[in-house]
Amino acid sequence: MTGLTTPYTLKSLSLRNRMVVSPMCQYSLQGGLTGDYHLVHLGRFALGGFGLVMVEATGITPTGRITYGCPGLWDDNHVAGLHRITSFLHAYGAAAGIQLAHAGRKASTLPPWLIGTSETEPHAETWRPVAPSPIPHSAASQTPQALTEAAMDDLIAAWAAAAGRADRAGFDMVEIHGAHGYLLHQFLSPVANQRTDRFGGSLENRIRFPLAVIAAIRAAWPAPKPLFLRISAEDGLPGGWTVDDAVIFCRRAGELGVDVVDVSAGGFDGATIRPAPGMFLANAARIRAECGVQTMAVGLMGDVAMADAALCDGKADLVALGRAALDDPNWALHAYRALGQESPQVWNRQSGYAIDRWPMRPAGGNAV
Ligand SMILES: Cc1cc2nc3c(=O)[nH]c(=O)nc-3n(C[C@H](O)[C@H](O)[C@H](O)COP(=O)(O)O)c2cc1C
């Protein structure tokens, strides 16, 4: 039976288990350059036994970043910092992934901890965001500039170039961010896309730009390396994108070479997505069954038995953890224990030795 601790192979990607750290923004950088913070933040999940550790939403252009503190891959000088991270992850048994993103009209915001405060940061910057249509994300957001076709072509090229840099940085997989109300999702959904050209209106038109991005990335990303796509399977808004639309899109994405769909939901202002354990699992199972792709389940999957059962029941191929991993970077190691499969080999040698064999000293004895 395939569960959380079953190794996973897909093309050249080889994972020691099916537990994945979901991409999570840290808003903690300058100029898109990763350094010590990210090495430690992400490295601890490799030591914590996860099979795949993913870098957060990474801007393919400076203006595609959610905030000025987000990482980037728009320039060759971003490669070295990320390479240091992938080398560490590999050295400690985890595969390395990165999410390539453009935030569209949700770009140019502040780190969440600064919103609503009078606090600022010396390197803070904002800019005018771009989007399919000049419709702001919320009452508090800037009105974006509508993209011209020439600007869209430039973005496609930037996405492909970022994928090439991700390869040079040593990543084993990339994920295209097509979810959470960011640029590609803005094209997909009639909520944000009111274009009257061949990129707006019908479903066929709305999926056109995201599919062009997928095709360009697939061409730039080495064929043996898997390509993941994160989607919001539904908007949770009246008149919005639905799971039926998502099924059609994912089929087409699969035909273009997407291997795994990472199934999330929501992202637009006012969306009604009720949080509950395994909340997106049914959509992951449907997309897996109907679209010829594998799926990654995410969304309050932190109950080990539930997450294990989701894989055993064939609803998904991988399980991604967000907040549960932040809360417990050793979540994957603890999952082995909870499933009765603990062995010294799953801990890194330094910790496994200490946990299994370090002599216990009586009180007042020699310090260990
Ligand atoms: C701090 C934080 C930052 C996040 N940043 C991203 C991101 O960069 N890209 C993304 O697709 N999702 C992002 N998410 C969503 C997570 O990847 C995940 O889908 C979500 O938290 C649900 O999983 P969970 O219930 O295990 O936390 C973020 C979530 C958190 C908590």
Mean pLDDT: 95
- Using the CA coordinates, give the radius of gyration: 21 Å
What's the structural domain tally?
1
The ordered string of helix (H) and strand (E) elements is EEEHEHEEEHEHHHEHEHEHEHHH
Bound molecules: flavin mononucleotide
Structural class: alpha/beta
Helix fraction, binned, reads 25-40%
Task: Indicate the low-confidence ranges by residue numbers.
Answer: none
Shape: globular
Provide the CATH architecture: Alpha-Beta Barrel
CATH topology: TIM Barrel
Q: Output the number of helix runs.
A: 12
Termini separation comes to: 41 Å
> If strands are numbered along the chain, what order do they take across the biggest sheet?
3-4-5-8-9-10-11-12
Please write the CATH class name. Alpha Beta
The fraction of residues assigned to DSSP E strands is: 5-15%
CATH H level, superfamily name: Aldolase class I
Number of separate strands: 12
| Main sheet record | 8 strands, parallel, barrel
What would you note in describing this structure?
This protein has 368 residues and is of the alpha/beta class. It has one domain: TIM Barrel (Alpha-Beta Barrel). The chain is built from 12 helices and 12 strands. It has helices at residues 36-47, 79-91, 149-168, 183-188, 203-206, 208-220, 243-255, 281-290, 304-312, 323-327, 331-338, 349-357, and strands at 8-10, 13-15, 19-21, 52-59, 95-101, 130-131, 145-146, 173-178, 227-232, 260-264, 294-297, 318-321. Helix 1 links the parallel strand 3 (19-21) and strand 4. Helix 1 packs parallel to helix 2 and helix 3 runs parallel beside helix 6 (208-220). The longest helix is centred in the middle third of the chain and has 20 residues, at 149-168. Flavin mononucleotide is lined by residues 22-25, 56-57, 99, 177, 179-180, 230, 264, 298-301, 321-324.
